[in-house]
Amino acid sequence: MNRESLAFAEQLIKKFDVGRLRISSGGGDALESIAFGHFINDRDIDVVVSRVCFSSCANYVLPSAASVFVESGAVLGWHGGAESDYSHEPEVWSDSELNDWRVAERSLYEKTGTCWELSVYPQDSMSWYSAYIYDGWAWDMESLTKLGLENVTFEGGVLATKGKGLPSVARLGFKGPCKPYNNAVNYDG
């Protein structure tokens, strides 16, 4: 998901008044994906995940959808978000870029009623073994509801955690409740 592909998708959605979007994405640019999430949410669009929705797709498109239908064998996966601990990677994000991302993510999550822990909760607490073996994590169905994604249906009632050519994910549970945002972070909004 990048600026060009999302602009093209928005153009088609507007032109054909699309009410349901079929998606398969390994992720992409966070800020562009957040903007697309707002676009999806503002239009009350349903999303069908056909193969994979990972990273920015899972972080920002899924919470924004009116409903989500995950086809059999499709993988949902997370591996971090704006509130992740990037202190060990200072070369990845400048303070300004990280702040912009955090402000944008917070805006979308507050708009959609999504817990910020959706994209970060286990990242720094996964065992080294799990972090090495898996590309990320998937939330069990009960946890998705606790995290604010009450509109997700899995075909056959089964959550896939791996597939040929797809990211592999560890299935995790979220005990909740959602925690408030950390006020120590420099948010503009």
Could you name the key traits of this structure?
189 residues, alpha/beta, 2-enoyl-CoA Hydratase, Chain A, domain 1, globular, disordered C terminus, ThuA domain-containing protein, ClpP/crotonase-like_dom_sf
Overall shape:
globular
Strand content: 15-25%
Helical segment count = 6
Q: Helix-strand pattern, N to C?
A: HEHEHEEHHEHEE
CATH architecture label: Alpha-Beta Complex
Mean pLDDT: 86
Q: State the share of residues found in helices, binned by percent.
A: 25-40%
Assembly level: single chain
Tell me the radius of gyration.
16 Å
In total, how many beta strands?
7
Task: State the separation between the terminal residues, measured CA to CA.
Answer: 25 Å
